[in-house]
Every structure is written in structure tokens, then in C-alpha cells.
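Field reference: sequence -> structure
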Amino acid sequence: MSEGGTAQAPIRVLVIDDEAGVRRIFSRLLSRAEMDVTEACDGFEALAILEKQRFDVILSDITMPGLSGVALLEAVRQRDLATQVIYATGNPSLETAMRAVELGAMRYLTKPIDHRVLVETVREAARLYRLAELKQQAMSLLGSRHPLAADRIGLQTSFLRVLEHMQLHFQPVVSLREQRIWGYEALLRTSDAALPTPLSVLEAAERLGQLRELGRRVRGLAALAANTMPNDTKLLVNLHPSDLEDPEIVSPSAPLSSFASRVILEVTERADISGQRELEGHASALRQLGFGVAIDDLGAGYAGLLSFLQLRPSVAKLDMGLIRNIHNDPRRQTVTQSLVQLCRELRVEVIVEGIESTQERDMLRELGCDLMQGFWFARPAAQFVEIPPERWR
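Structure field:
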């Protein structure tokens, strides 16, 4: 019983070892400690069990025939980021110990294992599992961003899976004056349970030091899409500031370079780019290849006038926070109109994004805005969609 008098469910443990005698000893010890124990004789049997059940803790041998403990953990992390893993081995070495830590094992134990140490280690692992579960629930209640895997192997496995299966969806940018689609913004989409949002994918790439791999994958998918893009439209592709330092982005042989004259690369103002000394040079190299350069989220982030001048954008996107309910807010109207006028004087085209109502659209038109983007016109889709005729009126 807990201190509050509420009965706790028994700790669920999956014991995996190819030696039946060791497996029985572990199971008996943990069962006597009032834990719910399931046994598996190898990694393949364990995976079959894990398809049907979830466990707080996995206690696994490292060296097993067929599927090693390391390979098993990689497979586990494709299903579950919270379950704690304890490795047990009869052949300890510094190399395997370091590998176990690198892969995110909660503990590395050497056989023979002291009985009290084994039971207490499993109990500690179960507490960590419950803490991970509660953190996820708390973050969900608070509307926080999706939690990432605590261990590197879980995050790496999820990230590589997302890279392989991620897609781009496309949202139209319209010219209201000409009543035509001016371009499409390419938006990253993932259906992965572990990294379900573009922001969670970006955070994973940052933690893993793989922003370059993510950027190249996005640009590769954008190049494939550009082959089927409607004539006389632009493709807007988002960049992380670190992408500007990737030599591939300014290579004439890069996939996206073939479509440079129709592509605008968006650099968000929400990321701090002030520390990039070669910012102006990078932007100049992109323009020489034929790319357009845009500043995204203008008015919402870090970048000041110096960054604006260094990038010399041809397009600026006003942050949707300025646009929300703009028809009811004179202050937003004044700021937006001034930004549009200033950008016009600087020969920078302005896109206002986040339009969700007729009132917002009409007010922005009154303020001199032409290029617009938002759910009012169309939601992002896997294909290059058209605009319903009634949305122009």
C-alpha cells in the first residue's frame, strides 16, 4: 500500500536470458518481491511478448544468440520510450559497459548479481518508469511540447525512422489582387508516435547533432516536389539557421539547386542568427544560384535590423500573432500597415500568414496586403491543392 492508502499495481518485469537456470533464479527473486514477472528465452521471444504487453522494466542479458540485448533495445525503443532497461552480463568489459550506457540502459550489472542489489535496482528502474509516465501526463495537461526520449538510442532510433518516412505537405500562398496561387510553403509532416510534430523532430535533430541530415532530407523532398509544382508558382522551403553553413546548400549539383529560380528559402526570425559571421556571404551565395531568401516570423523573434540587412531578403512573412483578430485590434492594424509600407520601400514582398476568417482577410486587404496564407484559403495537403472559388470573394 502507498502512504495514501491506495494500492499500487505490481511492478511488471520482463526477464530475458538464454540460460534457463539464470532466468528462473531472476524470476523467483523478483516474484518473491511481489513483482509481476514474465520470462523470455531470447530476444525474438521477447519482441513477440512486447507486441502484446507493456512492462515497467526489462532485465536482459547482453550476449544472446540471434538477437543481442543491444539489438533488442533498439527494437524496444521503436515502440516505447519510457520502459527502463537493465543489462546483466556474465562477460563484463569496459567496452560493453560503455556501450550499455550509450544505449540508454538504466543500469549495467555483472553476474553473479547480489540478490538485494537486483531487487532494489529493478525497483529503482520502476520508479523511473513511473516518473517518465507522469511527466508525459503532466506535459500533456499543460499543453507542453511532446517529450523526447530520455536516452540517446531511443531518440536516435525514432529520428532515423522519421527521416525515412517523413513527408512534406504544401499550403498555398495566394495573391488576393490577382486571385491566383502565388506559391506553396513546404511543411514537414510526420505520423511517428515518438516524434509527432515538426517541432519535436527539430528538437531531436538539435539534441543528436543531426540538423544537417534533417535539412538535407527536407531539401531533397522539396526538390522531388518541385518536379510536379504548378507552373508560375514559387516553392517556399524552411531553413534552420545552421543550414546556411552546410556546403551542400550552395552546391550547384544539390537537388534543390536545379529549381533555384522557383525556390524561396525561409529563415525564421525566431532563431538567433546574430552569431553567424558569414551570414551575409551565405545569403549572397544563395542568391547567386538563383534562390530567393525570405525572413519568416518577422516581428516575433531575435533578428534585428543588422540580420535583416545581412540576409537582404526578397520576401518577409509577418508572424501570425500579428494577424490574429486584426480586424478587432487597431494597434495590430497600425503595426502591420507600417511593416508592409516599410517592406515595400525596401522592395521586399510581404506575405501575411495565419488568415482564418473573412474579417481578417478583408482587413489585411484594406491595409495594403496582397500575398496571404492561412486556413481560410486552404490547409496544408500532400498535394498542390487549388483554392475554392468562394474563398476569393
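Note: The chain has 13 helices and 13 strands.
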